[in-house]
Amino acid sequence: MRNKIIITGTFLCFVSASSYLNASGFRSFELSARAAALGGAFVTRTGDASSVFYNPAGLAFSSGLRFETNVFYPEMTSRVEYSQFPTPFESTLGKIRVSPFISLNIKDKFGFGIGAFTPSTMGASWPENWTGHALSIHSRFNSLYIRPVAAVKIAKFLSIGIGLDFISSDATWKFDRIFTFQQKGSGDSLASVSESNVSAKGIGYVAGMMLRITDNFRIGGRYQPNVDLELEGSHYFLFPRFNDTPFSIYQDVSASLTLPQEFVLGLTYSFGRRLTFLLDYQRTGMSQIKQWDFILDPLFYDEIEDYHGTRPDQIRQGVDLNLRDTSRIMFGVEYRLIDSVLIRAGYAHQKSAVDGLMIHPVYPDLETQILSFGIGFDGFAYSILDPDEKIGGFALDAYFQYGFSPNSTSALPELPATYHTSRWIVGVGVGFSFGSSKTSNPRYEE
């Protein structure tokens, strides 16, 4: 018991700190090491605390108390080739991310859980002096979710789950802009750096179902509606040619953005206990993100006019992203080499959310092929005081994932160029489980 308390306390301290380690880089659905190795096909898996994200209904088919945390490093490189420059321009983003989960099943019927994760991000960071500096130098949109969930087995073969999402989002946009003045007889214009930083909190929900047709065959699904966010923050224009305070004074700025709805449907089929196949299909309503808009507070312009006798014309700053609904097909296979060692492989095809002719450097999302491979260990956790005493299950998973896209040429009038992206992720997951009533090792799913 003492060892259980120590492990639990350590994990909870880690959870409380890890939520600040999220980072933006690109849209990601691989928040569990086990799921990532399977190409993200995980909506019908049980026996894993990360069901909090993938499908809350799976917790009703789980067992005991489970802790899991996943640490991974994603990196994405976007490359732009512009005919007037001999070398391409690159954007590279990557930071450590952490996804912790806790779940509890009571009486093999009721499941509860909570998790902290960043399921989707978007953005790019380009060189300060690159050819598209008037469109974007740095853009980022990131959301942290805290999700408590509950599930119930309404029949021996059917469960449903639901959860609340407490969302904290932030966005940044920096670019160079020509600053013009509305004054009769004056054609004055100045080069400026424009930067906005906004944030907002929102609430959403998630629902899931799991149908266990046989011991070896399951189907399931997850649905999340869109969440509209009203973000607020600060903005400034910085004029490199001037040091006068009014030129760089901070002002209020607001933005309206939408977290798109998602629908995932999947199936799992196992050939005995050795071999398992998984297939998921995901549809994301990216067309609900209509524009990348930042509205500046006009009080700032009054101060500029009082100081210089002229009024700038920059109130709305935005980009029509031309996003469309997108789909993602995920396939995974898992094979148990021996009782405690598993190998996994996966493939995913992610369609682009951007009209191919209108790719914008704010969000250069391209069609992507993703390959993944992983290895896992499922064994026992032993007492520190008595090496022969089994106190629960222990799992360690590791994976590598690589994604690539074909070259896509944009006909954007401001920047007709060819885009290419590549991405890779490396990560590990650690899990503990206690109190299973089904198997000798409570980590095992079946």
Question: What does it look like?
Answer:
- This protein has 446 residues and is mainly beta.
- It has a single domain (2-434), classed as Outer membrane protein transport protein (OMPP1/FadL/TodX) (Porin), CATH 2.40.160.60.
- The chain has four helices and 21 strands.
- The protein has helices at 2-18, 33-37, 51-54, 299-308; strands at residues 65-81, 89-94, 97-106, 110-117, 121-125, 138-155, 158-180, 189-212, 217-224, 227-238, 251-259, 262-271, 275-284, 291-296, 316-320, 326-338, 341-350, 368-382, 390-404, 408-410, 417-434.
- Strand 7 (158-180) and strand 8 form a beta hairpin.
- Residues 1-26 and 437-444 have low confidence and may be disordered.
